[in-house]
Amino acid sequence: MIALTVTGGLLVTGCAGAGGSSGGSSGDGESINVLMVNNPPMVELQKLTAEHFTAETGIEVNFTVMPENEVRDRISQDFANQAGQYDVATISNYETPIYARNGWLHELDPYLEEDTDYDVEDVLEPMRNSLLGEDGKTYAQPFYGESSFLMYRQDVFEELGLTMPEQPTWDEVAELAAEVDEQRGDMKGICLRGLAGWGEVMAPLTTVVNTFGGTWFDADWEARVNAPEFVEATEFYVNLVREHGQAGAAQSGYAECLNNMTQGNTAMWYDATAGAGSLEADDSPVKGNIGYVPAPVKETDSSGWLYTWAWGIQKASSNTDAAWEFISWASGKEYEELVGEEIGWANVPAGKRASLYENPGYQEAASAFYEVTQQAISQADPLNPGVQERPAAGIQFVGIPEFTDLGTRVAQEISSAIAGQQTVQEALDKSQEMAERVAEGYRDR
């Protein structure tokens, strides 16, 4: 994979130290171009923008909406070239520090200092910290965020006489999955992602590796992918899904596990906290029957991941004042209130603001899971997710440009092991060679 680097001059404009348009107030026929992923909260945002944001500010917003893989490619191309075609784009806490390092993003701190109504201190601290650059400055603001937790069928556990611990260990989860399998022939014990992809199987598996004491790289950039702890964690994960997981696990990702849980085919599911909204939707067959507990652990106190879709402003944008006004609105408290009142509190883009978790309307709509979700996000520590020092931030990923390629290739080996085409040791020995090639480039710097 080609490292994300940029050389040469970048267009820099000045306004309040953050760059901007010609100055003065925004509006008056201005327009901005926004490139974003086509997730449901983004689609709802698009529907609300003209009637509310544009009507209030006079700023037209031209949206380009694309699937995740396509939008990532388009954003990286446009921001790397500093073409300025898009003023604002959805980027995650994986891309933000990398893009900031390459000089592709506008610093947002001057806007945050002046825009007191935005109340940046209300944004959950782990989310704020995950969007900082290496220089400690802020380069994006979250639209919504998530961690991971364990979801389980409370009614089935009660029927079978099983008890879910308040903070389960992975060993306890494996025992519970086996019990369900033994007593319920129509239901599997657990659903876990097995689909190849750095954002599919590697996301939950890496959290298991962390809590088992493993890591992709140690602090000295030594690859540790076939080290005993990494092997133990991966063998545990692969054996659990092969013995007590869903059919076709090697082709199952987030969507497939969500469907299995919704249709009553599985008793437990470890995955993103965002899944709870779908399970508790009005048309969900399992609404009201799901319990939620923190991500299972082994050697660490917590193990939930941290992810956010956030808004970043391209450095080459000539409309940064208007771009900030859009971000301030789309990530602000008033927008959450708007969605809650017009679409429903269950549809609010959650996971980023402390005030939302104190809102009675949201608490009622998300009563089954909001406290566990907030706890999971608050406990997430991208700088120290395991038992040893790391050379790069990240919980379910390693915060380096090469990880998208490395993680995907390793995921293919893991999926092959889940499918029974090779052993875990064989998969990780091949993966170690890939990781060592990446590590060499960092040790030589």
Automatic annotation (TrEMBL):
Gene3D superfamilies recorded: Periplasmic binding protein-like II (3.40.190.10)
Annotated SUPFAM superfamilies: Periplasmic binding protein-like II (SSF53850)
Pfam families: SBP_bac_1 (PF01547)
InterPro entries: Bact_solute-bd_prot1, SBP
Entry's transmembrane regions: none
Protein name: Extracellular solute-binding protein
